[in-house]
Amino acid sequence: PDCKIPVSANKRLSLTRPPRILIVQLKRFLYSNGRRYRMNTVVKIPRQNLDLSSFLSLNEEEVLEDGMGAKDTTDSDERARTPSPFLSVGSTIYDLKAVANHFGGISGGHYTACVYNPEAKEWFCFDDASVTPCNIDAVLCSPAPYILFYERRVK
Question: Are 93 and 87 in contact (CB under 8 A)?
Answer without folding.
Answer: no
